[in-house]
């Protein structure tokens, strides 16, 4: 696969070749571990191997951080590869431990991309980062919606403190296809988190944990709700939050893309009574999954 060098000073450049329908650019990044702020401010760092995301979910706030307006409009159709990420992370972890010799850093991977988007299957940048991180043993949380993560079971089982968050915002496949048509199926994600749970040990030496993040909760048809919830019993935590309304005065609301706002009109049967639907779903979660901890919003995104 060939791709074009990218500069933040350029307008959207042309690429020599594509990965499927995705324009791919290479970037030498200045840093790879960035100070965590805002919603995940309890972490020391965020780690984003890529910029942009092939899944291009309609409601994703990360589109607002596109390099320019054209790329924001084309969200889901381009990815910037931080080609020097593996080299950078080793330098930055060494620097951290020089200053904090007895304190593993807490790292959230990733905040504005998916580290296991389809491109990763070929580039293996995330895999390279995991390999470098193992000797340093950070406290690592991985956020993804991709079954590709099962490829790295051999590496993941070597971490001593790891949490994998699998994003599944609805239990209705037709809703998933509307809001995130380029993403993996619900069943593929459930299969992936189940395979991880059964193949990665959780013991005193390796404290490996698994979450389903229903953030935001998208519409779910009544006939799908209970069967979906019952399939979540393999994990130890669920994180849930409501969709950010376009009428709310918040950063998330301000960055909601038109595609998601329009889809909310299609699902008026849900959004006209969203608060009630959300609360009913939340109570159903707690009633059916007594052994699974349920958090709302920010409180659930930590390792512990």
UniProtKB/TrEMBL annotation:
Residues covered by the Radical SAM core domain: 48-219
CDD domains in alphabetical order: Radical_SAM
Gene Ontology molecular function: catalytic activity; iron-sulfur cluster binding; metal ion binding
InterPro entries hit by this protein: MJ0683-like, rSAM, rSAM_sf
Alphabetized UniProt keyword annotations: Iron, Iron-sulfur, Metal-binding
Membrane-spanning ranges: none
Protein's name in the database: Radical SAM superfamily protein
């Amino acid at each position: 696969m060939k791709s074009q060098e990218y500069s933040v000073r350029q307008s959207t450049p042309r690429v020599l070749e594509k990965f499927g329908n995705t324009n791919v650019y290479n970037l030498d990044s200045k840093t790879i571990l960035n100070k965590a702020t805002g919603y995940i401010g309890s972490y020391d760092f965020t780690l984003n191997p890529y910029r942009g995301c092939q899944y291009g979910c309609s409601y994703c706030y990360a589109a607002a951080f596109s390099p320019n307006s054209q790329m924001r409009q084309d969200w889901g159709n381009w990815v910037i590869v931080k080609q020097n990420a593996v080299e950078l992370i080793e330098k930055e972890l060494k620097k951290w431990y020089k200053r904090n010799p007895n304190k593993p850093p807490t790292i959230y991977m990733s905040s504005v991309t998916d580290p296991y988007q389809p491109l990763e299957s070929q580039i293996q940048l995330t895999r390279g980062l995991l390999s470098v991180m193992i000797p340093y043993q950070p406290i690592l949380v991985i956020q993804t919606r991709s079954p590709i993560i099962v490829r790295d079971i051999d590496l993941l089982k070597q971490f001593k403190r790891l949490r994998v968050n699998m994003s599944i915002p609805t239990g209705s496949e037709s809703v998933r296809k509307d809001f995130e048509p380029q993403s993996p199926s619900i069943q593929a994600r459930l299969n992936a988190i189940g395979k991880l749970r059964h193949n990665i040990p959780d013991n005193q030496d390796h404290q490996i944990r698994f979450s389903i993040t229903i953030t935001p909760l998208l519409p779910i048809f009544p006939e799908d709700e209970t069967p979906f919830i019952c399939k979540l019993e393999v994990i130890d935590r669920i994180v849930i939050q409501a969709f950010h309304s376009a009428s709310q005065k918040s950063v998330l609301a301000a960055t909601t893309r038109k595609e998601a706002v329009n889809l909310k009109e299609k699902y008026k049967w849900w959004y006209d009574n969203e608060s009630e639907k959300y609360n009913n779903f939340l109570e159903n979660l707690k009633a059916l999954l007594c052994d699974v901890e349920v958090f709302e919003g920010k409180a659930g995104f930590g390792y512990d």
